[in-house]
């Protein structure tokens, strides 16, 4: 019975692992989707900023051109010099702005590469998730019949127990699951490793029901140590 309980718990553990893996995979996909969305938004804002700078540069270049056209109509040397100073200042500002635009274009290349990277990561995550779901479905298709078979075998074995023993067995299993049963390991409880008294060992050899005084597990002798009646 202990073997069957262990098999059942093992199969259930494998079946329960599937939904956990699926949930973790879904979270990973969502994280990749968010990372891609953030990268796209960063790229969008950078493009808007770059476009704004380029528009600003065109406006300033046009202002320089307009100012230069006024040089020929300057009414005095003083006005002429003022216009030249304004042109020089605007040209210097435009050079700074041109450098900024060049840097922004380089940044856009980096951001576009980041978006491409995030898109590939998302595609891979989605592919991995699809493969995982197929694995989970295959595993469930195999394990579910196994679980039903072992549960049926355990039920049949339990039905053969004497009523008084079955009641105590049900109580222990309900409280502790498979840990409610423990094989004798040498002269000790296989559950808590408490040394068993000679009297307890004798009772077990006589196939009598015994419980470990330390952990409360239902003790049993391994099959090779049982005395056949």
SSE blueprint:
Blueprint: H1 2-70, H2 77-159, H3 163-176, E1 181-185, E2 188-189, H4 198-205, E3 210-211, E4 218-220
Parallel strand pairs: 1-4
Antiparallel strand pairs: 1-2, 3-4
Let me know the average pLDDT: 93
Helix content: over 70%
Low-confidence segments, given as residue ranges, are none
> What characteristic shape results from the CA principal axes?
rod-shaped
- The secondary structure category is mainly alpha
Count of alpha/pi helices: 4
End-to-end Cα distance: 20 Å
Percentage beta strand? 5-15%
Strand tally = 4
Largest β-sheet summary: 4 strands, mixed
For the largest sheet, list the strands in their spatial order: 2-1-4-3
Order of helices and strands: HHHEEHEE
Rg estimate, integer Å: 40 Å
Structural commentary:
The chain has 229 residues and is mainly alpha-helical. The chain has helices at residues 2-70, 77-159, 163-176, 198-205, and strands at 181-185, 188-189, 210-211, 218-220. It has a four-stranded mixed β-sheet with strand order 2-1-4-3. The longest helix is centred in the middle third of the chain and has 83 residues, at 77-159. The chain is rod-shaped and about 125 Å long.
């Amino acid at each position: 019975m202990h073997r069957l309980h262990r098999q059942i718990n093992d199969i259930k553990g494998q079946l329960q692992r599937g939904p956990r893996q699926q949930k973790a995979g879904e979270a990973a996909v969502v994280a990749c989707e968010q990372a891609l969305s953030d990268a796209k938004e960063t790229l969008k804002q950078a493009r808007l900023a770059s476009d704004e700078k380029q528009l600003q540069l065109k406006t300033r270049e046009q202002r320089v051109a307009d100012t230069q056209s006024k040089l020929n109509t300057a009414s005095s040397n003083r006005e002429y010099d003022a216009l030249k100073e304004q042109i020089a200042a605007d040209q210097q500002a435009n050079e700074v702005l041109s450098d900024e635009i060049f840097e922004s274009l380089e940044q856009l290349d980096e951001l576009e590469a980041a978006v491409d990277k995030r898109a590939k990561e998302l595609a891979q995550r989605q592919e991995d998730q699809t493969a995982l779901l197929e694995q989970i479905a295959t595993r469930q298709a195999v394990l579910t019949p196994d679980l039903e078979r072992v549960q049926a075998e355990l039920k049949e074995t339990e039905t053969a127990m004497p009523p008084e023993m079955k009641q105590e067995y049900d109580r222990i299993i309900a409280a502790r699951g498979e840990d409610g049963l423990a094989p004798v390991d040498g002269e000790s409880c296989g559950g808590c490793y408490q040394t068993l008294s000679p009297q307890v060992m004798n009772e077990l050899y006589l196939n009598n029901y015994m419980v470990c005084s330390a952990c409360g597990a239902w003790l049993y002798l391994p099959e090779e140590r049982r005395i056949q009646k």
